[in-house]
């Protein structure tokens, strides 16, 4: 089912109004346009406000009593709502309605309308800087604490959004939202251009390097944290190499952090170079829609030689596949986990691989003992032969 409208929501000062206004400048291939559905609010008007009608509490309550509001909510003790008539006007013009609303309102509206929900966010420093520029004053500790509290509450709703965008680059965000609207209900492997656009907005992967995009995939880099020989360790400038001994294994991390939308899955596999050295990669069958967290996998060295991996180097390749439609977001135990300790099972030291490793070490030890015996026997035989030759 195609979306009927777009919800733009997110944290305070994430740029919801700016993005919405920029979207309205775009004309799509079929001639339709995005159009902001004007809302009503009881808060004070700001200099950059164009998306609201400003009314008092009595007028707002009257709209509410007469059931003329599509939705209503309170945000920082001020009331917000959208008239049903304003929404219907945009639909009748065959334009795409844009609803700029609070995260709590977005959850309510998603139960009533088939909307594509975009959650905008940015780094806290960027949000604070935008807040200071908008208000013209530097917030005190009390105001900053309330600002942080509100953004924390807003972020608690982000799992319900279809896409969570890091809105640090306005033009990249607008470009991506237009593409997402154009490609809705279409499936397939993501192209290089779309991967780049998504990474620019913090979608698919965070902490990514655009230079690692290759064709229709991305080259994952070896992260610092890894688990080896029963201990969690870290690579560094002073110690940049991970060595996996013969018939041994390591659980390694990626530099990148997954940040999946609700209509994309991903799979990653080992580089051919490492595979040819006898390394096998073991991980889950796929990265689920809506998953956010560090990527970890198990590397097992099946060869009889040590394998060396360098910090930050390409060791695996990830491919992204867009679903036909959106799925329910991942809500498992690994959501938002960033440390390897969260992924290691309690019985890791007694797992099948460790038992196999012990058996291999035992065989190697027995082999060395037998080799010493064979060498001793051979040496003894040579000594006996030498003595017999001398006696002759």
Question: What does this protein look like?
Answer:
- The strands form four sheets. Strands 10, 11, 12, 13, 14, 16, 17, 18, 19 and 21 form a ten-stranded antiparallel sheet that branches.
- The protein is of the alpha+beta class and 392 residues long.
- The model has no long low-confidence stretch (mean pLDDT 87).
- Helix 1 (16-23) crosses helix 7 and helix 7 (170-182) packs across helix 8 (192-200).
- Helix content is 33%, strand content 30%.
- Strand 12 and strand 13 (217-228) form a beta hairpin.
Q: Report how far apart the termini are.
A: 100 Å
The fraction of residues in strands falls at 25-35%
Residue-averaged pLDDT: 87
Helix content percent band: 25-40%
Which secondary-structure class do the elements indicate? alpha+beta
Instruction: Report the uncertain regions.
Output: none
**Helix count?**
10
Report the count of strand segments.
21
Rounded to an integer in angstroms, the radius of gyration calculated over CA atoms is 29 Å
Question: Which word captures the global form?
Answer: elongated
- Please give the largest β-sheet: 10 strands, antiparallel
Annotation keywords:
five-stranded parallel β-sheet, 392 residues, single chain, elongated, alpha+beta
């Amino acid at each position: 089912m195609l979306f009927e409208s777009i919800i733009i929501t997110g944290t305070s000062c994430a740029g919801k109004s700016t993005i919405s206004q920029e979207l309205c400048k775009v004309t799509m291939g079929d001639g339709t346009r995005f159009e902001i559905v004007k809302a009503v609010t009881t808060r004070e008007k700001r200099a950059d406000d164009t998306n609201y009608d400003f009314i008092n509490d009595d007028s707002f309550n009257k709209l509410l009593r007469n059931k003329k509001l599509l939705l209503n909510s309170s945000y920082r003790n001020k009331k917000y709502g959208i008239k049903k008539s304003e929404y219907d006007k945009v639909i009748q013009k065959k334009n795409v309605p844009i609803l700029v609303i609070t995260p709590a309102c977005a959850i309510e509206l998603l139960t009533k309308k088939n909307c594509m929900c975009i959650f905008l966010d940015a780094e806290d420093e960027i949000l604070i800087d935008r807040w200071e520029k908008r208000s013209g004053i530097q917030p005190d500790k009390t105001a900053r604490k309330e600002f942080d509290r509100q953004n924390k509450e807003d972020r608690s709703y982000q799992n319900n959004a279809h896409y969570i965008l890091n809105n640090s680059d306005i033009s990249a965000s607008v470009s991506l939202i237009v593409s997402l609207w154009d490609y809705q209900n279409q499936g397939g492997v993501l192209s290089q251009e779309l991967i780049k656009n998504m990474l620019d907005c913090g979608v698919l992967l965070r902490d990514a390097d655009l230079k690692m995009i290759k064709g229709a995939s991305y080259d994952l880099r070896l992260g610092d944290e890894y688990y080896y020989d029963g201990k969690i360790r870290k690579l560094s400038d002073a110690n940049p190499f991970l060595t996996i001994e013969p018939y041994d294994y390591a659980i390694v991390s990626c530099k990148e952090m997954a940040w999946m939308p609700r209509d994309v899955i991903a799979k990653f596999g080992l580089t051919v170079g490492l595979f040819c050295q006898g390394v096998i990669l073991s991980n889950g069958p796929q990265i689920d829609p809506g998953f956010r967290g560090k990527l970890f996998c198990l590397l097992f060295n099946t060869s009889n030689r040590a394998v060396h991996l360098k910090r930050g180097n390409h060791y695996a390749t990830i491919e992204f596949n867009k679903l036909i439609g959106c799925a329910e977001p991942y809500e498992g135990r690994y959501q938002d986990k960033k440390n390897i300790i969260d992924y290691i099972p309690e019985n890791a030291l007694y797992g099948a691989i460790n038992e196999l490793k012990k058996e291999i070490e035992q065989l190697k030890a027995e082999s060395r003992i037998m080799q010493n015996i064979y060498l001793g026997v051979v040496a003894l035989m040579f000594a006996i032969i030498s003595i017999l030759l001398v006696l002759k």
